[in-house]
Amino acid sequence: MIARCLIIVAAASLALSTSAAAAEKPAKKEKKEKWATKAITDKPQPVTLDPAKAYILVRSPAQITPVLMRLPSEEAAAAHEADRAEAFARAHQSWRKRVASIELEAKVAGSDPNKRRKPTEPTMENFGYPSYEQKHTMFLGPQNRFSKVDGSVYLQEAPAGAYIFYAVGATCACLGTVSFDAPAGKVVALDLLAMNNPDGTTPFKLGGAAFADARLPAGSVVPAALKPAGPRANWFGIEVDRVMPVEGVFTYARGKQVTETVNAPDTPASDPVAAQP
Amino acid sequence: MGGPLLAAVAMWAAPVAAADVAKTEDVTKIIPDPATVVMPKLDFTETDADRADYDKYFYFHRADTGFEEALADLRECDGMSQGLQSGLQYAQAPYPYAGTMAGAAGGILGNLLAEAIVGSANKRSLRRTNMRRCMGYKGYARYGLQKDLWQEFHFEEGFSGEEESKRQAMLAQQAKVASGTKPVTGELGI
Fold first, then answer.
1. Any domain includes A181
2. Count of the separate structural domains present in chain A
3. ipTM value of the model?
4. Is B3 in Cβ contact with A7 (below 8 Å)?
5. Which of A41, A66, A238, B110 suits B149 as a labelling partner, its CA being 20 to 30 A distant?
6. Could you tell me the residue range of the domain that residue A184 belongs to?
């Protein structure tokens, strides 16, 4: 009898919770942002640039595997946050069901539900959801070079926007990196050198590159203007290091990036605070 | 018979009651009173064997640094040193076993063995590297310590991680040392 009453109450609650869930369900998004990049390889023909796309060129003395990530615009960040909240709501609902199931099983077995081990409640803080950057990662090299003259040059077609340098191979610039803008219809060029210091550190030396190649349209190549972008989480679980100070742009004070401006005292870089993972 | 059915129905039906479950406090955000944190023992008589192990067993210190600041720095660097990869890649079974069922089974076993033998050591080594580099860049000097003393307030992470509350308690002790009196022993560098 008690069991029957429980079923009726449970079924009624189920109906209520499902109708409430349906009411809370957000309207389906019209269009998802598409993420795709393409390597431009070493061909003798001139390169035709898509005016709607950006082109990122990385030059290094050796064959390397740079990892770049796109930074979100305000709109993209809001959309990503909405996706995260949606995924969190699903995860939380699933947790609630699991806990309810454990408690009911305990009741049926005649034991104290509070003494049963329950899964940790997901919160917005501990909820594991990939960041925007992780979802917009670009892996370059070591093959598919655009040029092999004086080292290795990688050229990648990508959506226009702001990008960060994240890693080379199994070492990330998690302790301090840089960002740069990649406007549509332009080739943004940067020099990248992975150091191997005697003290065991392996920082990265980056700078805007003056690059010329007859296959690229005249006036299309611009050196990357680097900006301090703060630390990033060690998303890949690899060795950590950082980008070396860029003269006239930023330096480090006790591990934090500080902007360097001519005839002005050092001030903490604005981006790093906002960029904290 | 009714038990599983009841459980199935209630699984969908009692989310409100489940939401009342007490939330656990996030131990990674708690800043303990430094007066309550036990200062670990750092005095020991140095031997050649101790010196040979200083790349593994060490602690940090920085002048003009408060407990809270040191704890924040240690937590940040600890975060950079968690969930690490062993760095081992999948290795194919060699010819003439490549492409055969026996080769595939042997390859899987071989890779599991390699991961078990050196994977954990690689992760522990990588954790040390990341901690040293992260704290070094923040201006903390490194000092050697005897293994037994080191183990009292440090942890290593290979395949298994340390429980979060224990981890945070040890990080608090490390912060107390890092913000305490300057050690009289020599600095080791990054």
1. yes
2. 1
3. 0.79
4. no
5. A238
6. 36-72+136-274
